[in-house]
Amino acid sequence: MAETKRPNSPAASYDGPPDYRVIGRHGVFPQTSHDEIERINFLAQMNRHLAARVVPGVKAAYDARVAPGFAAAHGRPIATRHEARKAMLEDPAFCTWSALRRMTMEQRQQAGRWTVIRQREELNERGKALIEGDDRLVLNPALAIPRYVSAVDHHCMPGSYHREYAPDDFTNGANYDHAGFVTTGGLLGKYSDGGGHAVVQWVKKNLPDFAPKKILEFGGTVGHSSLPLAAAFPDAELTIVDLGAPVLRYGLARAKSLGINNVRFVQASAEDLTGIFEDGSFDWVQTTMFLHELSTRALRNIFAESHRLLRPGGIVLHVEQPQYAPDMPLFEQAMRDWDAFYNNEPFWSRMHEMDLDAEMERAGFDRAKIIHGGVYGVVDREIFPDAAEDNTEDYGRKAAWHVIGAVA
Amino acid sequence: MSFNDALNEAGAKPAGKRPYFLDPQVERVLAITMSLMQELAVAHQRADTLERLLKAKGVLVEGEIDTFAPDASASAERQMWNQEYIARILRIVQQENEAATLSDDVASGEMADDMVRDAG
């Protein structure tokens, strides 16, 4: 290392996302050409540039122009994050940053979809060969996709997690998996699983005697955050529930190819799993970066289902971006709200102001047994940036999360 | 046929109305520009990959590109490429400047109306 990190050498001064080529591949990962890889590298650098070099200008404009301008016009300071956001919509710094951030997401979706769709038939065959006849995948083609998922495609991902373009289709799982690097800049590690490793580390440290046998993850999509749980508790059986057939199909093929076999994938709505799982049949219910893609009603149903499904003494853990606490500056709240209004995450804003403790209690959990914590993405630090040491704030996208949970 | 599917579907609109932050005309041009910026980065990295491979195979020597001096003929070809490239891209500036010097320029639609009037 010392040799490559001479003063003024590129390796010594470089601070940013790693080259995409360090990403971990598996049996159902799409082929990526040189130029497709460089498109992803460029877009990851765009997000890095926007966060590191443009956002400070948006903040400066807020302090110098937006907040004083609002105060002068209204005779009082900005009082809510919505006022802050609407005032910033009148300011060129926020608008330029927003336009570029939106376009970067649109370009990322286009780039990822191009790669997957051009090889769709071959990819679908490869995936099918990995999972054909495997009873660990249970799909329900009659499942109705709720409006909070179908009306607005989350993070501008056409067709979201559920749309299928061909029989036995893997397209939207493969797009979601292989190009998510653009948004995280490697902060989630080689297999985009830094969130799962963080959960495992937190559980092993804070609940050292916890030995789950049955684990359930709601909204686990392709298993990014789930497989570390299955790997850390090899005697347990992990079940992933999700609405989207393409991500579940892809998830099983990916898990098998990565040698993780104690996982099942079930297409269902986590709002109502009666008839699929019995009361008290799980030791652990997990969600990771999932709650913000629901609705108020769905969140309440899912909290209630987690309570129903846990055995007494079982654990539920939700990992999410931090809530809008009163001490969080309005500028930060407004910037974090960006995804709700401009990146098709409509529940993000409302969810982050909810009193989650009260919602847990409403679902039947004992307030005295509620758990709070905080985690950072856990990655191979030789290659990937470490979220705990990264001072760049990419509001809502950094791999730094809160944990809220409860003992049933 | 996946190539045509990719052409049709890769850039599909996600469900949900698109927000605009700038004048929509400006934002449209910026979006096109950002895609070009991306493709320029891709082209640059491809050239860099080629250079590194050629060096690794001993075809190119370190520093050879930076010290490259085209002969007179190559130099002329390369500078002409630059001139053509700029003129091609700045076509609209040329056309707007030419228009500014004209007092009797007429729109095709106006000309059509004239023709109708002329036919009586």
* H-E string of chain A: HHHHHEHHHHEHEHEEHEHHHHEE
Proportion of residues in β-strands of chain B? under 5%
The oligomeric status of these chains comes to heterodimer
By CATH's scheme, which homologous superfamily of chain A applies? Answer: Vaccinia Virus protein VP39
Structural class of the helix and strand makeup of chain A? Answer: alpha/beta
Largest interface: A-B, 43 and 29 residues
End-to-end distance of chain A, in Å? 49 Å
Helix share of residues of chain B?
55-70%
The value of Rg of chain B in angstroms is: 24 Å
Supply the CATH class of chain A: Alpha Beta
Helix content bin of chain A: 40-55%
What is the makeup of the main sheet of chain A?
8 strands, mixed
Mean pLDDT metric of chain B:
91
- Which strands sit side by side, in order, in the main sheet of chain A? 1-4-3-2-5-6-8-7
Describe the structure.
Chain A is α/β, with parallel strands linked by helices and 408 residues long. Helix content of chain A is 43%, strand content 12%. In chain A, helix 4 packs across helix 7. Chain A starts with 9 loop residues before the first helix and ends with a strand. The radius of gyration of chain B is 24 Å and the shape is flat. At the A-B interface, helix 2 and helix 4 of A face helix 1 and helix 2 of B.
Short account of what is shown:
With 408 residues, chain A is an alpha/beta fold. Chain A has 16 helices and 8 strands.
List the helices and strands and how they pair.
The complex is a heterodimer of chains A (408) and B (120).
Chain A: H1 10-13, H2 34-74, H3 81-88, H4 92-117, H5 120-131, E1 137-138, H6 147-150, H7 171-178, H8 181-184, H9 194-206, E2 214-218, H10 227-232, E3 237-242, H11 245-257, E4 263-267, E5 282-288, H12 296-309, E6 310-320, H13 330-336, H14 338-342, H15 348-351, H16 356-362, E7 370-376, E8 400-407
Parallel strand pairs in A: 1-4, 2-3, 2-5, 3-4, 5-6
Antiparallel strand pairs in A: 6-8, 7-8
Chain B: H1 2-9, H2 24-56, H3 72-89, H4 91-100, H5 108-119
